[in-house]
């Protein structure tokens, strides 16, 4: 075991990014993720990198595009409204097949909202986020340690698939302090970046590298889309991650939850067990690609009376749960919005009321 350090979530994410090889950070301050750019501004230049505060979030996204094109590892972070402003630039990066890592510590919305934690950006994150037939790989940590570990994976996935990767946290995971252990980056034998704009001298065939997301001819653009969709199919086949917590065939209730809310649900399961009610949890770690087959399997092979999704939103992941289960079991929802956090007793009372139906 290595040495564990007590760190705030945002700062731990920033440190993990540096250790994973991030060389350029472009961003703009917004609560509750401000400690990430603050940490980067202080530490990244000391370790051979560059920090630059953009004039706005949409400018940061386009800076990512330029820096990523040179083949270096790049990153930005923001919170809900700031991510919305980056959407156009993110689509350009996907069209140009450029890797980058984006962190969204979600805050209550809609609009400017507040600085309290929420999960109301799920739809934005997993249903494309931006224009075009696109996806981001979306990772959802439930602890500071998992956020740290997923940052290494995020940079590796971004490089491997030449696609933006989004770490979707919330205000709680950004602000809480937990002990964390850092590992060294492995880089997983990633292919060389022969596509990067590093000059003809560094080009294997001596030709110029041109990075662009503009395809005027429909045939050319369709071919690009076919290539990208083939890549997404590979990601679905290889990168789905999830946690099964106390799952068995003889459950009364199956919970579905992700991120920090899933930690509340684990406590709920413990309290229900004390009352003789058996419950388990399926926690998606990749929100895209979503672990559809896992939900489908348990819907077919469990005696559970229903699934209950718990979120800090008005109910966004529930749609993916319902699609995965495909009518095999009832699916219910309990959530709080606007920065309110579900209380264990509220969830317990609602779950027990459903059992009486």
What topology emerges from the helices and strands here?
Elements (H helix, E strand, L loop, with lengths): L4 E4 H11 L2 E6 L7 H9 L6 E4 L3 H12 L4 E6 L1 H16 L4 E7 L15 H5 L10 E3 L4 H18 L2 E7 H5 L1 E4 L37 H21 L3 E4 L7 E4 L4 H14 L4 E6 L1 E3 L3 H10 L4 E6 L6 H8 L5 E5 L8 H12 L2
Parallel strand pairs: 2-3, 2-4, 4-5, 5-7, 6-7, 10-11, 10-13, 13-14
Antiparallel strand pairs: 1-8, 6-12, 9-11
Helix pairs in contact: 1-2, 1-6, 3-4, 9-12, 10-11
Written overview of the protein:
With 357 residues, the chain is an alpha/beta fold. It has two domains: 5-238, Thiamin diphosphate (ThDP)-binding fold, Pyr/PP domains (Rossmann fold), CATH 3.40.50; 243-355, 3-Layer(aba) Sandwich (Rossmann fold), CATH 3.40.50. It has twelve helices and 14 strands. The chain has helices at 9-19, 35-43, 57-68, 80-95, 122-126, 144-161, 171-175, 218-238, 261-274, 292-301, 318-325, 344-355; strands at residues 5-8, 22-27, 50-53, 73-78, 100-106, 137-139, 164-170, 177-180, 242-245, 253-256, 279-284, 286-288, 306-311, 331-335. The strands form three sheets. A seven-stranded mixed β-sheet has the order 3-2-4-5-7-6-12, with helices on both faces. Helix 6 (144-161) links the parallel strand 6 (137-139) and strand 7 (164-170). Helix 3 (57-68) packs parallel to helix 4 and helix 9 (261-274) crosses helix 12. The protein is globular, with a radius of gyration of 21 Å. The protein starts with a strand and ends with a helix. The model has no long low-confidence stretch (mean pLDDT 96).
């Amino acid at each position: 075991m290595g040495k564990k350090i007590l760190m705030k979530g945002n700062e731990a994410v920033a440190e993990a990014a540096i250790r994973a090889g991030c060389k350029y950070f472009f961003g703009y301050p917004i609560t509750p993720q401000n400690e990430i750019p603050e940490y980067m501004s202080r530490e990244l230049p000391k370790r051979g990198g560059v920090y630059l505060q953009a004039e706005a979030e949409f400018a940061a996204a386009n800076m990512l595009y330029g820096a990523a094109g040179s083949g270096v590892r790049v990153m930005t972070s923001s919170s809900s409204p700031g991510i919305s402003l980056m959407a156009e630039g993110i689509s350009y990066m996907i069209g140009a097949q450029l890797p980058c890592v984006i962190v969204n510590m979600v805050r209550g919305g809609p609009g400017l909202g507040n600085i309290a934690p929420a999960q109301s950006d799920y739809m934005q994150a997993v249903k494309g986020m931006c224009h075009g037939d696109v996806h981001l790989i979306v990772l959802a940590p439930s602890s500071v340690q998992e956020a740290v570990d997923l940052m290494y994976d995020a940079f590796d996935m971004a490089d491997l698939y030449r696609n933006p990767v989004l770490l979707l946290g919330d205000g709680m995971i950004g602000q809480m302090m937990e002990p964390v252990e850092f590992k060294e980056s492995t880089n997983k034998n990633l292919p060389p970046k022969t596509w990067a704009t590093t000059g003809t001298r560094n080009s294997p065939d001596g030709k110029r590298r041109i990075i662009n997301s503009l395809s005027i001819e429909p045939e050319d653009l369709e071919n690009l889309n076919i290539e990208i969709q083939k890549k997404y199919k590979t990601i679905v086949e290889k990168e789905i991650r999830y946690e099964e917590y106390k799952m068995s065939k003889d459950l009364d209730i199956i919970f579905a939850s992700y991120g920090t809310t899933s930690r509340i649900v684990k406590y709920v399961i413990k309290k229900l067990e004390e009352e003789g009610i058996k419950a388990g949890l399926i926690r998606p770690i990749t929100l895209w690609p979503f672990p559809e087959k896992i939900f489908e399997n348990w819907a077919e092979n469990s005696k559970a009376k229903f699934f209950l999704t718990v979120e800090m939103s008005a109910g966004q992941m529930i749609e993916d749960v319902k699609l995965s289960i495909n009518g095999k079991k009832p699916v219910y929802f309990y959530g709080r919005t606007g920065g309110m956090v579900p209380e264990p007793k509220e969830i317990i009372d609602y779950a027990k009321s459903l059992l009486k139906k």
